[in-house]
Amino acid sequence: MAAGGTRAIGDDASEGQKHRLIYHHILPFKRYHEAHHENPRAYVGAPPLLGTFLVFLTSFIPFAMVAPIIANGVSVGMLAGYTLYMFIHYAIHFWEPPPGSLLYRARLRHAMHHYRDNRGNFGVSTSFWDRVFGTRIQRVMEHSLAS
After folding, report:
1. Which residues, other chains included, contact 75 with Cβ-Cβ below 8 Å and sequence gap of 6+?
2. What residue ranges do the domains of the chain occupy?
3. What whole-number distance in Å separates Cα of residue 44 and Cα of residue 73?
């Protein structure tokens, strides 16, 4: 339960920010990510061990100094969230989800990041934090209906 709650709050919030701040600006992550943008069906993201190390560095170490049991729970939640993120990211690039499904909407949202404007739609599993941080790219149809 704690792991799921940590995923919902912690990793979901950090997913888009890690994508925006790390994958678009910091080497070697930027190189991996640029290769992914050039060919979205190429290897997706940074090597999993590098991503896992980053999750460990940002979730376990800070909490371990305060309460090791909390550090374990937070780390399990963050790693579960990272695994889910990797799974969804893979699925939106390689699967053909049915129109209207959550995965289909995630695929459309992520495609705008790849093909329209890579300065937005950083969240892969949800657009919630892109809305909070003002980095959500609206589809042309949504934008014209809102006007």
Report:
1. 55, 56, 59, 60, 63
2. 2-146
3. 27
When mean pLDDT is compared over 6-20, 21-35, 91-105, the highest value belongs to 91-105
Share of the chain above pLDDT 90, in %: 19
How many other β-carbons are positioned within 10 Å of the β-carbon of residue 92?
Answer: 22
| CB distance 34 to 22 below 8 Å | no
39, two tokens: 């060919």
Q: What is the pLDDT of residues 82-141, one digit of tens each?
A: 888 889 988 998 999 999 999 999 999 888 887 787 787 888 888 888 888 888 888 765
CA atoms of 74 and 63, how far apart (whole Å): 8
pTM to 2 decimal places: 0.71
What is the per-residue burial (b if ≥16 Cβ within 10 Å, else e) of 30-54? eebbeebeeebeeebbbeeeebbeb
For 26, the 3-state DSSP assignment is coil
95 DSSP 8-state letter: -
* Tokens of residue 29, six digits: 């992550």
Please, are residues 2 and 73 in contact by the beta-carbon 8 Å criterion?
yes
